[in-house]
From TrEMBL, chain A:
This is Ribose/xylose/arabinose/galactoside ABC-type transport system, permease component. It is a multi-pass membrane protein. It comes from Pseudoalteromonas luteoviolacea (strain 2ta16). InterPro entries: ABC_transp_permease. Belongs to the binding-protein-dependent transport system permease family. AraH/RbsC subfamily. PANTHER family: ABC TRANSPORTER PERMEASE PROTEIN YPHD-RELATED-RELATED. Keywords: Cell membrane, Membrane, Transmembrane, Transmembrane helix. The chain crosses the membrane at residues 12-32, 38-59, 66-82, 88-106, 113-131, 151-178, 209-227, 242-259, 266-285. The keyword Cell membrane applies. One of its GO terms (cellular component) is plasma membrane. CDD domains: TM_PBP1_transp_AraH_like.
Automatic annotation (TrEMBL), chain B:
It comes from the Bacteria. This is ABC-type sugar transport system, periplasmic component. Its main location: other. One of its GO terms (biological process) is transmembrane transport. It is found in: Cell envelope. GO terms for molecular function: carbohydrate binding. Residues 54-304 form the Periplasmic binding protein domain. It holds the Pfam family Peripla_BP_4. Residues 1-29 form the signal peptide. Transmembrane segments: none annotated. It comes from Pseudoalteromonas luteoviolacea (strain 2ta16). Keywords: Signal, Sugar transport, Transport. SUPFAM superfamilies: Periplasmic binding protein-like I.
């Protein structure tokens, strides 16, 4: 019989399994386990998973990126505006490049000026939020390009929603980068100990800037997924996702201090939060009750994590 | 090129809204205003037999939203309709879409909702209405939606009238002369934008009132700082208009710190803190209040009617009234259909005894 030890790394697997078991008992009479509802959960959480993957890259080298939500908004807006005049290719490429560049700028400022990423990305969050509001004139930018909507929003390939395909592809890509490529090992080495990584001959600054650029790039992709799903872009998109992201990566077994990232854990962490949100709504909990239950679950998860780490 | 396109798009949206308002006014004449939609006994019996279910997807939470929900729940209960779930999106359009998708899994017969961003929420609403759910909207119309096909009806405030009433309260507070400041909601939000615009337009008719300064806020926590800055730049202001009650709390806080009891505050909606200040003859001079409980009741009734094939009005408008010291208690009852909070009641009684006002006057 196989025993899996409960650690911070495996906590999310147990939490996910236990939550599903509880839901099987409590929500079997509701629509929770219908295919349509489970697909809903997957699609609703797709942009958040992509953002969480981006954050994982930043965390892997010991940075944090608080500007992710604002990058989501600005990249979605830029894509929506460019779509009207230049078509899907230019809109998507420029949007992704913009996200990557903003992330790289965050990283550069941290490395060059020696400012903590918390401060740099907090400043970038403020700047980008104001810039998005200015750029959009506080209006939603509609998206009517059928190709874009199909690719990032409502489309399907052999019956599988495009958002889920994006999700699967990006999770695979991130997992491969972090676990199979040399670059991934470099990220973990830098996150675990900068001096040790430096003595190994790694260019620590460049690796950290690359990690932040990846964080920005994934945030831009999340912006495109949001824009496709909502068929419009808005300055406030992604603004309220930051707390859910941090909760998801913590639940997923990532170290907020760097050096430890688990992409599958992050994926399950986001899904766990999405399932809890969905289950509580279907159970008829009021908004206030939902917030209380989510808070209790988060505290319980952190307690268990800290206990099993001792 | 891009700006021209956006300009054209805005013009089209404004044209559509204009047409909608005109259509709405025509229906209003037929549908009356406050109790604008009623069901006959036979129709109510049919609703009860139908064993309907309902959900609500709100934009955010506040005492105002709670009162709408309460009004709707009471009416649903009276009609034998089960409420399956109530969501609120924290003013996040993406969360509202997720909420709508989740609620769709419950296959409700009726959905009551206020859309945060009608553009992005439109596909989710359409999916529900195509699945047979009767959608009743609050305040914000959805461009391109056809009445009777995509939605059962729209219930809303007379936002222009409320803006005008606020301007009249300002004039009343400062004897129709002096300098005025405005702290407005700087976001794309139909109700507050229209109300603020109507206020500015109506204030222009007073020749001796000068709107000296306008400052926008994004979060209600910013209004205290904005007021402090406003007072430094324009110390001779006699009144400040604020977009809604909760945002006015920061303005009053700032005026108290600056010891400026002479500056009067006028706002929209009712909240206990500001009404206490009004009862104590503080800075809060007046507010314009609508009828959230009645909105909920009407929305529930329209949804029930539509779900049982009763013809429902395109647009139903609820009344509003100006609130000053004299009619606080009556206005509260009209708005929320609940007793006055104990603390407000006792302060009001003490204040009325001190000033010689024995009882409330009519709210209008």
């Amino acid at each position: 019989m196989m025993h899996v030890k409960l650690t911070a790394h495996t906590l999310v697997y147990y939490a996910f399994a236990i939550t599903m078991l509880i839901f099987t008992v409590l929500l079997s009479h509701t629509a929770f386990f219908t295919t349509a509802n489970l697909l809903n959960i997957l699609m609703q959480t797709s942009p958040i998973v992509v953002m969480a993957i981006g954050l994982s890259f930043a965390l892997s080298v010991g940075h944090i990126d608080l500007s992710i939500g604002a990058i989501v908004a600005i990249c979605g807006l830029v894509a929506a505006m460019l779509l009207q005049s230049y078509g899907i290719t230019i809109a998507v490429v420029v949007s992704l490049l913009l996200g990557g560049l903003i992330g790289a700028l965050n990283g550069y400022l941290c490395e060059r000026l020696g400012i903590p990423s918390l401060i740099v990305t907090l400043g970038m969050l403020g700047f980008l939020t104001g810039f998005s509001r200015q750029l959009s004139g506080l209006q939603s930018i509609p998206i009517i390009d059928p190709q874009f909507i199909s690719l990032f929003g409502q489309g399907t390939v052999i019956g599988i929603p495009s958002q889920i395909l994006w999700l699967a592809g990006l999770v695979f890509l991130a997992h491969t980068i972090l676990n199979k490529l040399r670059f991934g090992r470099h990220l973990f080495a830098v996150g675990a100990s900068k001096p040790a990584a430096h003595s190994m001959g790694l260019v620590v600054s460049r690796i950290r800037v690359c990690a932040m650029a990846l964080s920005g790039g994934f945030a831009a992709l999340a912006g495109l997924l949001y824009a496709g799903r909502m068929q419009s872009a808005r300055y406030a998109i992604g603004e309220s996702d930051l707390m859910a992201l941090i909760a998801a990566v913590a639940l997923g077994g990532c170290s907020l201090l760097g050096g430890r990232v688990n992409i599958i854990g992050v994926l399950l962490g986001v899904w766990l939060i999405g399932c809890i949100n969905n289950g509580l709504i279907l159970s008829g909990f009021s908004s206030n009750e939902q917030m209380m239950v989510k808070g209790i679950i988060l505290i319980a998860a952190v307690i268990v994590t800290s206990k099993v780490n001792k | 090129m891009l700006s021209k396109l956006r300009h054209c798009e805005k013009a089209c949206i404004k044209l559509f809204l204009g047409i909608l308002v005109c259509l709405s006014c025509n229906h209003l004449a037929v549908a009356n205003s406050s109790d604008g939609f009623t069901l006959t006994q036979q129709q109510e019996a049919k609703v009860q037999d139908a064993k309907l279910t309902a959900v609500m997807a709100w934009h955010g939470s506040s005492p105002w939203v709670n009162s709408v929900t309460l009004g709707a729940k009471e009416e649903f209960k009276r009609l034998g309709i089960e409420v399956l779930a109530v969501t609120e999106a924290h003013y996040d359009p993406a969360k509202q879409i997720s909420d709508l998708e989740t609620l769709a899994a419950l296959t409700p017969d009726i959905l009551l909702s206020l859309s945060i961003d009608s553009l992005s929420a439109k596909p989710s609403y359409l999916r529900l209405s195509k699945a047979g759910t009767q959608l009743v909207l609050l305040s914000n119309p959805i461009a391109g939606f056809i009445h009777g096909q995509d939605f059962a009806g729209l219930v809303g405030d007379n936002v222009d009238g409320m803006g005008r009433a606020a301007a009249n309260l300002v004039a009343q507070a400062i004897d129709s002369q002096g300098k005025v400041g405005m702290i407005y909601h700087e976001a794309d939000y139909h109700i507050t934008n229209k109300r603020d615009e109507a206020f500015v337009d109506a204030l222009e008719q007073y020749e001796d009132i000068h709107l000296m300064v306008k400052k926008g806020f994004v979060k209600k926590s910013q209004t205290a700082q904005l007021t402090a800055a406003m007072l430094i730049q324009h110390p001779d202001l006699k009144a400040i208009y604020v977009s809604w009650d909760a945002a006015a709390e920061g303005v009053i806080e700032s005026l108290r710190i600056a010891n400026r009891k002479d500056v009067k505050v006028i706002s929209h909606d009712l909240g206990t803190n500001n009404l206490l200040d009004m009862a104590l003859h503080g800075n809060m001079y007046g507010a314009v209040s609508d009828r959230p409980h009645q909105i909920g009741t009407l929305m529930a009734r329209i949804g029930a009617g539509a779900a049982t094939d009763v013809s429902t009005p395109l647009y139903t408008q609820v009344n509003y009234n100006s609130v000053t010291f004299e009619n606080i208690a009556e206005s509260w009852r009209l708005a929320f259909k609940t007793p006055l909070p104990h603390i407000l009641k006792s302060v009001l009684e003490q204040s009325q005894e001190a000033t010689g006002h024995g009882e409330d006057h009519d709210a209008r």
